[in-house]
Write a structure and sequence with these properties.
The chain is built from 15 helices and 17 strands. It is α+β, with helices and mostly antiparallel strands and 559 residues long. The protein folds into 5 domains: 145 residues, Beta-Lactamase (2-Layer Sandwich), CATH 3.30.450; 36 residues; 90 residues, PAS domain (Beta-Lactamase), CATH 3.30.450; 69 residues, Helix Hairpins, CATH 1.10.287.130; 161 residues, Histidine kinase-like ATPase, C-terminal domain (Heat Shock Protein 90), CATH 3.30.565. Strands 2-1-5-4-3 form a 5-stranded antiparallel sheet, sandwiched between helices. The protein has a 5-stranded antiparallel sheet with strand order 7-6-10-9-8. It has a 5-stranded mixed sheet with strand order 12-14-15-17-16, covered by helices on one side. A hairpin with a 2-residue loop joins strand 14 and strand 15.
């Protein structure tokens, strides 16, 4: 820019200087021409006066010694006298412009340029009608012009240096003034008044730009927060397979960080064959997906080509582990329900068929009816438990919470189960503090009843069951301790699964459905209660449920 401004100033200065010099030369030469033409006219006037006062014009002209060429012609253009006659013997005077004009108007003048001189001619009609013409030859104009060219060249060179220096000085001053403008505060730092409208416009545009940048940064932060808050992993690649963007979820899945991953090839952070196959498939199609195991979880990785000129690639990682586990759980649940219902139905069908076909003796019919009734009741209990779990899963249980006194529910449950326990000589004992919680009485009853029922069913003959409830700060802790068969350590995490039984051969004889502890787990989760199991195979089990007296104050639970 500095060079462009400098040469623009130089060229403009030289152009103006050249125009000035040309005008000066024209003015000087024009002035000289006027002076020489005037001199010729004055000489003509003197000769005219002399010829008007004499009768013998030719004799007077012969006696006039001069460098002038003097021509005297008649009114018809015929030559009377010519001081240069030998040289111009054949000349046609009537065609000379000054003589031609004089014949018509009484006077005339003309300037003619020759190779190295000028001819200044002036003509006038005399009283007798003849025309007198005076022609003067001058070399002074060419001499002046040749000398002037030399001076003009020297002056042009001088002006060239002056223009260069002036242009450089002005350019430096201009550039320094522009450089001195602070872009953050252009109006106050502008030293040229002429620049003020410009810098004010810059300042206005700058403020608008700052507002837009601020808004864009805010949106970028918002988008980045949303982007990183996504539960799904997200990766964007350019057409060279370099990572443009990666969110926190994807970083956690691939064991990297955004700082380490962005700008690097995708293969540098993961070369799992299933993902590499996705990249290969995208060479022939716009989108594809695969179920890929990452760590201990399964993910659906969807890959698609971005619809843009860059033709990058987008990966979306969706965790399907819970969905697949739920699907497997549903399949197992369906299979277990079918199996559990098939057994009593087979028994009922077989006994009924024998009764219908008269294959049972009269005295044995009662035992058959009792067996059918037992299996039907077992089916009803199984269906009731399934429906209860289904309502819990769908959230279709009553959300009404009311004060519940745990000791009352424990006493009712013990009284309901005491006849069953007494058949096997199992003692039922309870020790209850005055504990009251806010909850659903029906669900809390399910928790306590199922725990005591299991403690009785899976106990030894002459065993014992102890039920305790006590307070610990904001907690009400329920424990059900038995002296039963116990649970293997490796299977203690499975007992809350649906239809899981520690001893399948014995549980069916005891009328269990395998859903009791699943109901306990769901009901405890509904009340934000905690479950704990301690058991030793062959020695017994202790089930602990920790309720919160005040559900609004659960800071201890969070800690």
């Amino acid at each position: 820019m500095r060079r462009r401004i400098f040469w623009s100033g130089v060229v403009l200065s030289l152009l103006l200087s050249a125009i000035l010099l040309i005008l000066t030369e024209f003015a000087i030469i024009s002035s000289v021409k006027r002076q020489l033409s005037l001199s010729t006219s004055l000489k003509l006037e003197r000769l005219t006066t002399m010829l008007n006062n004499t009768d013998d014009a030719e004799e007077l002209l012969d006696k006039t010694l001069s460098d002038l060429r003097i021509i005297l012609v008649s009114e018809n253009g015929n030559k009377i006298f010519d001081s240069f006659e030998p040289l111009y013997r054949q000349e046609d005077y009537s065609k000379m412009p000054e003589i031609k004009e004089s014949i018509k108007k009484g006077s005339g003048a003309d300037i003619q340029k020759r190779a190295n001189y000028y001819l200044f001619s002036s003509a006038k009609k005399l009283k007798n009608g003849n025309v007198l013409c005076v022609i003067e030859r001058s070399f002074i104009i060419n001499e002046i012009r040749s000398k002037m060219y030399l001076y003009l060249i020297l002056l042009f060179i001088l002006l060239l240096f002056l223009a260069s220096g002036t242009s450089k000085h002005l350019t430096d001053k201009l550039i320094d003034g522009v450089n001195a403008i602070d872009i953050d505060n252009p109006v106050d730092t502008c030293n040229f008044e002429e620049f003020l409208p410009f810098v004010r416009s810059i300042s206005s545009k700058q403020n608008e730009l700052k507002d837009k940048i601020s808004l864009m940064e805010k949106r970028k932060i918002d988008i980045s927060a949303i982007f990183n808050a996504l539960g799904e992993g997200f990766i964007m690649l350019d057409k060279r397979m370099n990572i443009i963007s990666i969110n926190d979820s994807a970083c956690a899945l691939l064991g990297t960080t955004a700082e380490k991953a962005e700008g690097k090839p995708f293969q540098a952070i993961n070369r799992q064959k299933e993902i590499m196959q996705l990249l290969f498939n995208l060479e022939h199609q716009d989108s594809t997906f695969a179920i890929v195991p990452l760590g201990k979880r399964n993910y659906r990785i969807a890959a698609s080509v971005m619809d843009s000129d860059e033709k990058g690639i987008v990966f979306l990682f969706t965790d399907l582990t819970d969905k697949l586990e739920n699907e497997n759980l549903r399949k197992r649940f369906t299979a277990n329900v079918s199996h559990e219902l098939r057994t009593p139905l087979t028994t009922i069908s077989g006994y009924t068929e024998m009764l219908v076909n008269g294959m049972v003796r009269k005295k044995d019919e009662l035992s058959f009816f009792k067996r059918i009734n037992k299996e039907a009741n077992r089916m009803l209990k199984l269906v009731d438990d399934i429906l209860r779990l289904s309502r819990m899963d769908e959230g279709k249980i009553s959300s009404d919470m009311e004060p519940v006194k745990l000791s009352d529910i424990i006493d009712n449950c013990i009284e309901s189960l005491r006849p069953i326990a007494s058949k096997r000589n199992i003692s039922l004992e309870s020790s209850c503090d005055d504990c009251e919680i806010l909850g659903n009485p029906t669900l809390i009853g399910e928790i306590i009843f199922n725990l005591i029922d299991n403690a009785v069913k899976y106990n030894k003959i002459n065993g014992s069951v102890k039920v305790n409830i006590y307070k610990d700060g904001n907690k009400c802790i329920l424990t059900v301790e038995d002296t039963g068969i116990g649970i293997e350590e490796g299977k203690q995490n499975q007992i809350f699964e649906r239809f899981y039984r520690t001893d399948k051969s014995r549980s069916k004889d005891k009328g269990g459905t395998g859903l009791g502890l699943s109901i306990v787990k769901h009901a405890a989760e509904y009340h934000n209660a905690e479950l704990d199991v301690k058991s030793e195979l062959g020695k017994g089990t202790t089930m602990k449920v920790i309720f919160w007296c005040d559900p609004k104050n659960t800071s201890e639970q969070i800690i």
